[in-house]
Write a structure and sequence with these properties.
Blueprint (H helix, E strand, L loop, with lengths): L1 H8 L2 E7 L6 H10 L9 H6 L6 H11 L6 H17 L2 E8 L1 H5 L5 H19 L2 E9 L4 H11 L8 E5 L11 H9 L5 E4 L5 H11 L3 E4 L7 H10 L2 E4 L1 H6 L11 H6 L3 E4 L4 H4 L3 H12 L3 H13 L5 H7 L1
Parallel strand pairs: 1-2, 2-3, 3-4, 5-6, 6-7, 7-8
Bound molecules: adenine (ADE) and zinc ion.
The site of adenine (ADE) has 11 residues, from helix 4.
Length: 326
């Protein structure tokens, strides 16, 4: 359809992408071989067959296990470059990428190894495809406040090249309040902050992310629809939501795409964006998310224009950069 063709071709930003979640099975096995380590799966098909998730935790267990193949600076560079090539092919002109240092620091990988590899991949992609990248350090919320502070300490030598901070991993039982002091320190460093909230957790976690962490965007936020006052507040504040449709269906937040709250969020006037979250694990990159949303909801060109313009506006790019895209 005309609307789908428009959505696929238009310039857009991706604002919710975990670089570790872009590790395709083919690359995972290639890196395992390069590093002389064994994955607990016989082959690529066996690994792909394990991508049958019942909830967020069942995914995270596999996601953290597969990240073990990432060892050298080159591994992180290859991972970044592979994602950015795919994103550029989907019309993504700018992306703000989450990385999880604690996953790697805990395995004895130096912060510099991981970070310089990611940065090298981003620089190469900028030169090759013209795509721009910002890097957002995510704290793992199932770990302690103390561990988050130690991670922030390890990141300080690189702080000029870190563009923001986020909060991810197991949401239930780990409310934003647990990281109020860490996020205050991140904001004192002059960085914007974001947090996953209202993916599996209740709308109250979205309120905490706003009031206690003072986030500039909510990642997911799809359970906001359960709280009318919160919906009104998000709309009034123009608070961006980075919604990840295929992720939500694959992690059983919604039974099918038609059950997704995306149309309700849009109808309430929220500043919604579409993103791929962990595309290697959830059935596709941004283009596939757009196709799946369109198959379920048949949005018109105006709706897609709004969604994609939202993604550029809600980015942390400068006003000058935005003016070049919008
Ligand atoms: N880490 C990677 N993907 C995630 C998600 N969808 N929710 C929470 N933590 C994550
Ligand atoms: Zn996410």
């Amino acid at each position: 359809s005309r609307a789908l063709a428009f959505a696929l071709a238009a310039p857009k930003a991706e604002l919710h992408l975990h670089i570790e979640g872009s590790l395709e099975p083919e690359l995972a096995f290639a890196l395992a071989q390069r590093n002389g380590i064994a994955l607990p799966y016989a082959d690529i098909d066996a690994l792909r067959a394990a991508y049958d998730f019942s909830d967020l935790q069942s995914f995270l267990d596999l996601y953290y296990a597969c990240a073990d193949v990432l060892r050298s600076e080159e591994d992180f560079r290859d991972l970044m470059l592979a994602y950015l090539a795919r994103a550029a092919a989907d019309g993504v002109v700018h992306t703000e990428i989450f990385f999880d240092p604690q996953t790697h620091l805990a395995r004895g990988i130096a912060f510099a190894t991981m970070f310089e590899g990611l940065a090298a991949g981003a620089a190469q992609a900028k030169a090759q495809f013209g795509i721009s990248t910002k890097l957002i350090l995510c704290f793992l919320r199932h770990l302690s406040e103390e561990d988050a502070f130690a991670t922030l300490e390890a990141a300080l030598p690189f702080i000029a090249r870190i563009d923001g901070f986020g909060l991810d991993s197991s949401e239930k039982g780990h409310p934003p309040a647990k990281f109020e002091r860490v996020f205050a320190r991140c904001r004192d460093l002059g960085k914007p902050v974001v947090a996953h909230a209202g993916e599996e957790g209740p709308p109250a976690y979205i309120v905490e992310a706003l009031d206690l962490l003072k986030v500039s965007r909510i990642d997911h936020g799809v359970r906001a629809s359960e709280d009318a006052a919160l919906m009104a507040r998000l709309a009034a504040e123009g608070m961006p939501l980075t919604v990840c449709p295929l992720s939500n269906v694959r992690l059983c937040v919604f039974a099918t795409m038609k059950d997704h709250t995306l149309p309700a969020l849009l109808a309430a006037g929220l500043k919604v964006t579409i993103n791929s979250d962990d595309p290697a694990y959830f059935g596709g990159y941004l283009g596939e998310n757009i196709r799946a949303v369109q198959a379920a909801f048949e949005f018109d060109v105006d709706t897609w224009y709004t969604l994609l313009r939202n993604s550029l506006e809600a980015s942390f790019a400068s006003d000058a950069e935005k003016a070049g895209w919008i």
